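not sure who needs this but someone in the group chat was asking about DUF1178 family protein from Hoeflea alexandrii so here u go. i didnt clean anything up, its just raw.
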Amino acid sequence: MIRFSLQCDKDHEFEAWFSSSTDFDNQAERGLVECPVCGSRQVGKALMAPAVAVSKEAPVRPLAMDPERREMMRKIREMVQAVKQNSEDVGERFADEARKIHHGEAEARGIIGKASSDDARSLIEEGIEIAPLPDLPDDLS
């Protein structure tokens, strides 16, 4: 998985994970990448600072977040929790169950689970709408 810094045509910046650069390009071309702030689908990659490897002896330095970003993280945590509470966890059966729901072979409902990048790509190519659910640390304060 690759994390991209993205920016919409209204200059809102956000991050998203994709299985590859090609995966981002394909989803963006199909209008599947959307700004979480304004809903714009005119999204491109923003400039990113390269990751710098540090030795094990180097202290871990926390990221200082301004109040606006802290509030955004709080809202994202709430959203993730709401999705988890209102979805059925189907585990490794996610791709199969998503297909059954899409084809009307199973009850329409929200599901969460695990899918390989190949399965996720296949689901998207089949027109089945899916989205990654971020794993967030419990506390960033």
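also Strands lie at 2-8, 13-18, 43-45, 88-91, 111-113. if thats useful
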